[in-house]
Please model this.
Amino acid sequence: MSGVYKQSFKQNYTDNVELSIFNCGLESCTPGHTWGPGIRDHYLIHLVVSGRGTYRIGQQSYSLEAGHLFLIKPNQLISYTADMEDPWEYYWVGFNGAFASKFVQQTPFTDARPVHRCKDMEKLKELLHGIYLHRGPEPQNEAMMVGYLYLFMANLIQEAQEMESRTGNSSSQYVLNAIKYIQFNYSQDISIDDIAKSVGVSRSHLYRVFMSNVGQSPIDYLTSYRINEACALLRTSQLSIAEIAVSVGFFDQFYFSRVFKKAKGVPPSKYMASFEHASNSEK
Model:
């Protein structure tokens, strides 16, 4: 497409708590067009398909052009600006859900590397456009949009694996294997020693590679994963708080409540009640 344009879609409601589209679109920007500084409450990935622009996170600035993707994570202070001479055109998808963090962790993006030059821009562009083309409020629209999002993320995950095999850097693979172990065993009484043993490294080495690649310790990641799974159950299941605590690996309900409140700002009972109230008000 040529000229300045913006086409976008925002999802107002979803039943899909695992992975859901928040918004999507495509835009050819005016010179100097800027968003931010500000924060998002969801994950957002842009693919630059032509032109140039600048992406800023805090004090760090990245100059981007066609073929670059940039990731925005929830609650990051960011801004991005189109070039004055050759303003960019980009496609984007915003998403969230209980599985969102899991997928992002497996892509080429890290806290130290929030931008990525993709291998096949046309393929990723096609998938992002597919999300937009199947927009709509009906369940079949959401299913198609999320389907294209899964394919988009799968392509990024494949690129991350190919990068890993080229560089021979094993630290990211240790982290990915540890994350997979957590995803399959978080509901059990596992320790950091168990996780380290599962990937074949020492506890101290696991800590170092997690801090380097994820930006948080293994125990913080495990706790965060369990709390996010608990949130999904609090929103969608009929289980009691005690049952949910056990289901996500907390075998002391009072400790679970303390950890949950520290992470989310409210105890699990109030978190659950807020969704029950919202559900009742829609009836």
